[in-house]
Design brief:
The complex is a heterodimer. Chain A is mostly helical. Chain A is 69% helix and 1% strand. A two-stranded antiparallel sheet of chain A has the order 1-2. The longest helix of chain A has 40 residues. Chain A is globular and about 75 Å long. Chain B folds into two domains: 185 residues, Periplasmic binding protein-like II (D-Maltodextrin-Binding Protein, domain 2, 3-Layer(aba) Sandwich); 192 residues, 3-Layer(aba) Sandwich (D-Maltodextrin-Binding Protein, domain 2), CATH 3.40.190.10. Chain B contains 18 helices and nine strands. Classes of the chains: A mainly alpha, B alpha/beta. Chains A and B meet through helix 1, helix 10, helix 12 and helix 13 of A and helix 1, helix 3, helix 11 and helix 17 of B.
Chain lengths: 317, 447
């Protein structure tokens, strides 16, 4: 389950104002010092990340039950995926989750950021309050709490009963179980919101002033100034949110009691991967799933970056 | 605005790298030598060991108390316990097995034993019995044999023999105006009992949980009706028609509103002291026979005056539908402190004081001296006494010990629940789900 995109290190091209000899000697020493300081990280990267990653790539072509030696099976694991009903169900659940939760998360955090960008009393207090859920949103305790809120005898149903509406369990119904997890994700909007808020603070005030003078209303100002100025951050948040959503696990694991049920309705990709790997001891199949996820994420990321040239506005251009 | 393309790119890539590695490094190759040669468990009892078991709060308390007694009795020994809920316990055990870090004393049951023996993860205990490190003189031979693997070696020493029972909330049964089924009742009697009760139960309660997806009753049903659960080669021994008949019975009950709804069953917390029966919302359910005490405690805590009891499973033309599920401690091949682990296994199973403290929390004590001492104890609670007496009643009917093939827990139990969910939520017919289950189970069973 260990994967990594190539880390990007972007160095400025070296200039050449000085004579080559002194330049290269001090340069070489600098490089050595840099390497020295990088060593702890490099060791970690090679031993803890690259090594296991490559090993899992090998495992994805094997039949490996964790407890005895792997045997090579070629592409069998990948072929099995095409006919495995639970695999296909997990892909469906994950795609729906990504398609629904990411846009919702962006809209909600943008709205809250706009709200918190206005001038009102106790603003810092509100900001801290709104950020709070994202600190605890990914925790097991909150996911367990979710069962209490959306269960048959949960808070939500108690509230609905007060209004005279009868409703069964939200968590135990295959049609609504995934929805409760989407709500959990969106509820933890804090970090996305903070990034938007930081961006809003940097939009030059004179742009708004000029637009107001020209007679642009608030909606027009939002869509013609705020949104374009924020596109780099929308891009960043959308990308992060998508990568996150593809890997969602904790909420589904806790809310469904590790089963992905009812009827596979919360069987996220990573949850099924976990079940195959650690419950059914099909590490080869689980590794193959992990690598497929890496490829899909890489493709999504590439697509995002490619599309960004058409809709992301950078201040430096 | 100073967001530059490259800065953002680095940030994005760096963060996604962190996210992707978030799952942490896993799978470190495994392998490793299991060490050859028999280990007879003799040697200095010292140093530290880890001990792992499954169970709820009450059992954790008792097990920890026994561990404390063991440490006190053996100078220089340190012992650390780790416990989890039944399902989570085995998930963790698999991870520990893969990383060669299994605790030195791990609690096992026949249902999972062959997952581990088929991969040579456990030490045979026979040499330790021969050397005298572990004493089995007070345990009936038939019970000891329940800890043997497919190869005939003893891999865990049963300290307690559990059974599944039908828990009955007698308060609710009284309100519904039904009499408890009499000893030797059949599945037909049971269904009639449930249907009669459903008509008279107070609002917010049901006659029984939706049980089609749980293997417990199914195992009892196959035993009572003379079907075979598993064939010699570790595949399914019953037919699709058998399964269709069984699931149709539960579907009829569910559709008639006798059982709990599919939705509520899907979200029910696991663990007998957490479920709806322990909350007083069900008149009956299958519970481990030894769960009577914790369930009674939970219901007492609610203070609604509900009383519960347990009865044996329904019988059938082929006799008793009850089976014994012994639990005991095993010693992994990777254990580096076998003498201390063997001493602990022996202590837990045979020490009289320890046995009285543990009080047959996980099935009746297999050590007959300990069991008799418990029954003779005037302070034995009524519920515990009932548990032990029902155990004796079931044992008198000569119940079978089922040999579960490797893959049982991961494949059979999970697929059984999923297949029945497909029926209960209306996605598949009983026939479709039964066919799909049989194919899936046979593919994963038998190792």
């Amino acid at each position: 389950m260990t994967q990594q995109l190539a880390p990007g290190i972007i160095a400025d091209a070296p200039g050449s104002q000085w004579s080559k000899g002194t330049r290269s000697r001090s340069k070489r020493r600098e490089a050595l010092v840099a390497l020295l300081f990088l060593t702890p990280w490099l060791i970690g990267l090679v031993l803890l990340t690259l090594g296991p990653m490559l090993y899992s790539l090998y495992l994805s072509f094997t039949d490996y039950d964790l407890l005895s030696a792997p045997t090579w099976v070629g592409l069998d694991n990948f072929v099995e995926m095409t006919t495995d009903p639970r695999f296909l169900a997990s892909v469906g659940v994950t795609l729906i989750y990504v398609a629904v939760s990411v846009p919702l998360l962006l809209v909600v955090s943008m709205l809250v950021a706009l709200l918190l960008n206005s001038k009102m009393k106790f603003l810092t207090g509100y900001r801290a309050l709104f950020y709070l859920p994202s600190l605890i949103g990914a925790s097991v305790a909150i996911a367990a709490l979710w069962r209490q809120v959306f269960g048959d005898e949960g808070l939500l149903n108690a509230f609905l009963a007060f209004l005279g509406i009868e409703h069964g369990s939200w968590v135990g119904n295959p049609d609504t179980a995934l929805g409760t997890i989407v709500v959990l994700t969106v509820w933890a909007f804090g970090s996305t919101m903070i990034i938007f808020l930081a961006g809003l603070r940097q939009v030059p005030g004179e742009l708004y002033e000029a637009a107001s003078v020209d007679g642009a209303g608030p909606l027009r100002r939002f869509f013609s100034i705020t949104v374009p100025m924020l596109t780099p951050l929308i891009f960043f948040n959308a990308l992060m949110g998508t990568i996150n959503a593809f890997q969602a696990f904790t909420g589904a694991y806790v809310i469904s009691g590790g089963t992905g049920g009812p009827v596979n309705s919360t069987l996220f990709y990573t949850l099924y991967l976990y079940q195959r790997g650690f419950a059914q001891l099909d590490m080869g199949y689980a590794s193959a799933m992990a690598w497929l996820l890496v490829l899909v994420l890489a493709a999504f990321t590439a697509l995002f970056f490619w599309s960004s040239r058409y809709w992301v506005f950078y201040g430096d251009k | 605005m100073t967001w530059t393309r490259s800065a953002l790119g680095v940030l994005a890539l760096g963060t996604s790298a962190l996210l992707l590695t978030g799952c942490g490094a896993s799978g470190d190759g495994g392998g490793g030598g299991n060490g050859g040669g028999a280990n007879d468990g003799t040697g200095e009892i010292t140093g530290s060991i880890e001990i792992a078991w499954w169970g709820g709060d009450a059992r954790n308390e008792k097990t920890n108390a026994v561990i404390d007694m063991f440490v006190e009795a053996n100078e220089g020994v340190e012992a650390n316990g780790q416990s989890a809920d039944f399902q989570a316990y085995f998930d963790r055990l698999n991870v520990q097995a893969a990383s060669q870090s299994l605790p030195c004393a791990v609690q096992l049951q026949g249902r999972q034993l062959n997952d581990y023996t088929s991969r040579d993860l456990l030490l045979p205990l026979d040499p330790m019995i021969e050397s005298g490190a572990i004493d089995v003189s007070d345990i009936p031979e038939a019970v000891v044999d329940a800890g043997r693997g497919e190869d005939g070696n003893l891999y865990f020493l049963p300290y307690g023999a559990a059974y599944d029972a039908v828990g009955i909330n007698t308060t609710l049964a009284e309100q519904a105006g039904v009499e408890l089924p009499e000893e030797g009742y059949t599945w037909d009697d049971f269904v009639t009992f449930l249907e009669d009760a459903a008509a008279g139960l107070p609002e917010g309660t049901r006659a029984i949980d939706s049980n089609g997806g749980r293997p417990n009753f199914f195992i009892g049903w196959t035993q009572a009706n003379g079907k075979t659960l598993f064939s010699e080669d570790g595949k399914l021994g019953f037919s699709q028609d058998d399964l269709v008949e069984y699931w149709t019975m539960w579907e009829d009950l569910r559709e008639a509103g006798v059982t709990e709804t599919a939705e509520r069953t899907a979200e029910e917390p696991s663990g007998p002291d957490q479920g709806y029966f322990a909350n007083g919302q069900l008149m009956s359910d299958t519970i481990p026979g030894n769960a009577l005490t914790p369930v009674t405690a939970v219901l007492e805590g609610k203070g609604e005056g509900h009383e519960v009891t347990t009865i044996a499973y329904p019988s059938g033309p082929e006799g008793s539908g009850n089976a014994l599920y012994p639990s005991g401690f095993a010693i992994p091949a990777s254990c580096d402190n076998v003498p201390t682990a063997a001493a602990f296994v022996d202590f837990f199973t045979n020490d009289m004081e320890a046995g009285l403290v543990f009080a047959s929390d996980n099935g009746a004590a297999t050590n007959t001296a300990v069991l008799e001492a418990q029954l003779a104890d005037p302070e034995l609670s009524e519920t515990k006494k009932h548990e032990l007496e029902l155990f004796q009643e079931i044992v008198a009917n000569d119940p079978p010990t089922i040999v579960f093939p490797p893959g049982y827990q991961a494949t059979f139990e999970a697929a059984f629940r999923q297949a029945y969910e497909q029926i209960a939520f209306g996605n598949q017919s009983v026939e479709e789900a039964a066919a799909a289950f049989i194919e899936q189970a046979n593919a994963g069973l038998g190792g």
